[in-house]
């Protein structure tokens, strides 16, 4: 795995890639989305994904962490949904945090997901939308999320489980993250201490339509897109709580 600084720099550069810009425009998202409830475009599907992950957050949550917040569109939506909460975007990239603040995110934290600069038992919810697959490691993040959550607090994730030998660059994903069954994922959350673990596959409502959307900007590269689409084993929504 590359260093945190090098990872952030390489990930930041993705946002300037012409096809990525063509896909997302100025939406502030870099997500697959949840293509349900009539979502007609990628930005609407990304909004729907944020709403689905946020459905697990208690309405009276005081502190919500959006870990791996990207450019901030999702964090801003969380802030709108929970106007009385402190909603903080967490990221290793200072540039992405700057972008998030420019989009209206009021609170940001520069931290590694496995070493959150948050006191023990202070958060009501820890969310990670398509970011945990990058963390070094996902299991360490689960333990750290458990630490910062108060008793009764929740963790909610949209996560991508990739196969061995896929089309995704090694610097983006730890090799040991690439083979995961839903059962193994559930066990990793329980091993970190979580209770009430619920993990469900939504590949057909997320990854599959997203790959179809990518055809719009990757015309002529259907073979590459097919390898990318086949590289995913499961796209999951995962929820649990700290008792």
The helix/strand order is HHHEHEHEEHEHEHHE
The CATH topology corresponds to: Rossmann fold
Give me the CATH superfamily. Vaccinia Virus protein VP39
Q: Which term fits the overall shape?
A: globular
- Which range best describes the helical content: under 10%, 10-25%, 25-40%, 40-55%, 55-70% or over 70%? 25-40%
Number of domains: 1
Question: Which range does the strand content fall in?
Answer: 15-25%
Query: How many strands in all?
Result: 7
End-to-end C-alpha gap: 33 Å
Instruction: Supply the CATH class.
Output: Alpha Beta
Give the helix/strand layout:
Elements: H1 4-14, H2 18-24, H3 42-54, E1 63-67, H4 73-81, E2 86-91, H5 94-102, E3 107-110, E4 123-129, H6 138-148, E5 149-162, H7 182-191, E6 195-201, H8 207-214, H9 222-230, E7 232-241
Parallel strand pairs: 1-2, 1-4, 2-3, 4-5
Antiparallel strand pairs: 5-7, 6-7
Helix pairs in contact: 3-4, 8-9
